[in-house]
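Review box. Two proteins, two foldings.
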Amino acid sequence: MSDNPRPSLYGARYTVRMIGRRSREAMRAATVVGHHYESGDVIAVDVPLPADVRAGDLLAVAATGAYNHSMASTYNLMGRPPVVVVADGRARLVVRREESDDLLRREVGL
């Protein structure tokens, strides 16, 4: 919801892959959700992922792009994620992750 509103706003669909470890399990349809525990916080529905995908695995969501960054919010004081450009097998950070200190810096107190 805060870092990827496009699926809930207008049904954007994404390719999702598990990265960082190999699995020999068969693929199965899975729903990938965000971290807000809200009914609209769904990133992808019925995407093929290994049957043994588990908490802590890293999932790559391809082509979320600049639109997500410009539409992102700090809903529930969640910082926005980094923006990483991947081309020719190389990854480059172009926008750093928003940290709690970034969010709290705007607070002036009572």
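Next protein.
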Amino acid sequence: MPEQILARVEACYQQAEAFFKKPFLRPEVSFKLRGQKAGVAHLTENKLRFNPELYRNNREDFLKQTVAHEVAHLIAHQLFGLSIQAHGEEWQLIMRGVYELPPNRCHTYEVKRRKVNRFIYRCACPAPKDEFPFSAQRHGLVSKGRRYFCRRCKATLNYSGEQRIE
């Protein structure tokens, strides 16, 4: 799997070098990306990260569009600097002119949402009582002393002892 992505990254760089008639510094490539993003370009680190699960489920489009999309970010950065917009005209020029691909900002791959545990907090408002589902991270902060308040009654939100899976 990584070999195909690495080969496509290299092919994209060679296309850009032929188009602009100049060499580009090759990036570090990582396959440690999860969640909804298919790829991420870290401009100042010259690094690309790709989502292996989304690649497995969308190989053809991922290789063609996603890899070129992320490489185009690094090429645009090397050519024009940090002051450009992420999906601005410089990036679009590279997508259309160099790779002859539509400059789509986002992918349309199906993403499986993982189930998360929510900790239910409540306030002192009169009925109907509002529920405030906290993430495990926020619940952990409460256990370390952080306090959160209801915007309506200004009372501290308290853990109800209930949890639910979403």
